Amino acid sequence: xxxxxxxxSVGKVHGSPPNEVIALRxxxxxxxxxSLTAVMGPSGSGKSTLLQCAAGLDRPxxxxxxxxxxxxxxxxxxxxxxxxxxRIGFVFQAFNLLPSLTAEQNVGLPLRLAGRxxxxxxxxxxxxxxxxxxxxxxxxxxMSGGQQQRVAIARALVTRPAVIFADEPTGALxxxxxxxxxxxxxxxxxxxxxxxxxxxxDPLAASYADAVVFLADGxxxxxxAAPTPDVVAARMTRLETSC
Length: 243
Ligand SMILES: Nc1ncnc2c1ncn2[C@@H]1O[C@H](COP(=O)(O)OP(=O)(O)OP(=O)(O)O)[C@@H](O)[C@H]1O
Description:
GO terms for molecular function: ATP binding. By secondary structure, the chain is an alpha/beta fold. It has a single domain, classed as Rossmann fold. The protein is about 35% helix and about 25% strand. It has 8 helices and 10 strands.
């Protein structure tokens, strides 16, 4: 089953006249299965809006978003909520784990929200995928930042989503820990065919991606395959100085 995520001529206007802000302009992109895509761009260039529209958290003003052959615009609120819950995983800069729950309970949360009693094996599998099989009974406060982010990634994986959207997943981590988390994300793409779309400001993080999409003023300014940190940094500098 082809589960490519496609944005076709997506535009997004926030607010209403006279305070309209055009956040996305005619964005056409595809995120193919088993790929890691980095989304970069200056502050206010539309990265978060792009993620929100691609994830069905916000509806585009114009254009379409499809996951495989499902057009998100054709879904009512209930169906869209179900699609987000079952087919999309989210990872955030601040981990967003519940502090009073163990790693195992945090990872099981999306299944509980879907009305299912989580199976021990599926939670253990998700924790093993992020190298934390032995931490199932620890609470977030008993783990390092990198370990907490790995629990959050296990939580995103547990529903076997078509795509994981990650908003600055290494933004709160030091360089060494970031590298570990990025290597792990890369491994999920290579070994289990996971599709991941990651917003980042960090050229090093972007260099782990298969492709980088650069946004400027709401439009795709450039794309780069096989990125290296130096080339990414140079393109970012060029974009930041031209806006
Ligand atoms: N709810 C909103 N209402 C009005 N304007 C908004 C809203 N959300 C975003 N914007 C505007 O849309 C534009 C794009 O914002 P967005 O948050 O997508 O950018 P970004 O690239 O993620 O920025 P940053 O890197 O600073 O987080 C900005 O001009 C922003 O001020």
